[in-house]
Amino acid sequence: MPLIEVHLIEKVFNTEQKRQMIKDLTDAMVAIEGENMRGVTWVKISEVASGEWAIGGQPLTTEAVKQLAAGRHAA
User: Fold this and answer.
1) What per-residue confidence (pLDDT) applies to 35?
2) 11: phi > 0 → left, psi -120 to 50 → alpha, else beta; which?
3) Contact 56, 46 (CB under 8 A)
4) Considering its fold, how many domains does the chain have in total?
5) pTM (2 d.p.)
6) What pLDDT does residue 74 have?
7) Is residue 74 part of a domain?
8) How far apart are CA 50 and CA 61, in angstroms?
9) Which of 10, 22, 57, 67 stands the most exposed, by the fewest C-beta atoms within 10 Å?
10) Residue 46: pLDDT above 90?
11) How far apart are CA 47 and CA 9, in angstroms?
12) For residue 20, what is the domain's CATH number?
């Protein structure tokens, strides 16, 4: 029984985007394991508060992630 854990910074993705992640990740596992595993494939999304996730010692904020996704360099 696979468990896929996804950790995101809060308020970057909306509910529909998170539902799409769940669907697509489940579909990816089923493509590997077979359709019989769909019902036992778990996807867990956890959100981390803005600024409480860091890369290279620098806190990453919701706004910084949105800027990166838009192709802009975060300040």
Assistant:
1) 97
2) left
3) no
4) 1
5) 0.85
6) 60
7) no
8) 5
9) 57
10) yes
11) 5
12) 3.30.429.10
